[in-house]
Amino acid sequence: MSRIVAVHGVNQYDPTRGADAAAARLGAAWARALSQNVPSPLGASELSMTYYADLLQAAHPAPEGQGPGDDVDRLAPEAVDAVLRWGELLGVRTREAQGRVLAPVRWVADGVAKRYGFGHEPVRKFVARFFPDLLAYLHSPARTRVRQRLADAIARHEPRVLIAHSLGSIVAYDTLWQYTDLKVDVLVTLGSPLAMPDVVLPYLRHPDDSRAFSRPPGAAAWVNLADPGDLVAVPQPLTDTFRGVTACVSTGIGAFRMHKAGGYLSSAATAKAVLAYLEPIG
Question: Of the candidates 109, 128, 137, 247, which lies 20 to 30 Å from 61 by C-alpha distance?
C-alpha cells in the first residue's frame, strides 16, 4: 500500500527495462525529488509510480532511421496540426507557416523559442517528444489500457494522493472520470495541458455531461501547480476552464526547467500541496 500514486508525463519510455522495473526506477526518482521539501525522506513504499510509456510506445513506434535531429520534421499530419494550434495559443502567427514553409513544425517551434527566450533545439526536441505521446494517448486504443493500468494501481494502493505530471494529468483526470468508484483525498496536477483548447479539451470524456470540465467525483480535492512560463500548461489558470479546482498555484520552477517533472516535484509548493493531505511522514 502506498499513500501516493504517481503518473508520469511524456518521453519516459525505457527500452532497457520492463514496465515494472521502469516504474520502480522512475518512482524512486520522483520520491527523491519530492523528499527535498518534506520533514523526512519518503520511504520506498510511500510512492508508487504508474508507468504507461510502454503502452504509448507500442501505439506510435518511432519511424525507422529517425534520429534526434530530424524528429521534428517527421511528425504525423495530426501532430503537425496540434503543433500549429499550440503555437497559436502561445502567440506565434502559425498561418504564416501553413502552405509557405516546408517545415511548419520547425518554424512554429523556433517561433515559440524566440518569443519566450528558449534555445531553438530544446524546444524542437520537446515538440517532437510531447505531441506524439499526447496524440497516441488521446487517439489510439492505448488510452483504454493506460487508464486501466492506473485504475488498477489506485484500487490496489488506495492512496490518499494521486499526483500527475503533464500528460499524466490527462491520464489521471480521464481515469477518475471513467472509474467513478475510485477515491483519493486529493488530485495534484503539475504542468497540466488539460485546458489546451482544440488539442486536448474536445477529447476529454465525461460520463455525466452536466459535470463536464469539473473535478472528478472521486477526488475530494484538486490542486493544480503551474510555472507561469510553462509552455504546456496553457492557458492558465486552470480554474478558467475547470470547475471544482480547490487551488491553482502559480510557482516558478526555473526558466530552463519550465516543464520538467523534477522541477515541479522538488518545489516547496508541491511538497506543501502533498503534505497537506498526508499524516506526518516519519
Answer: 109
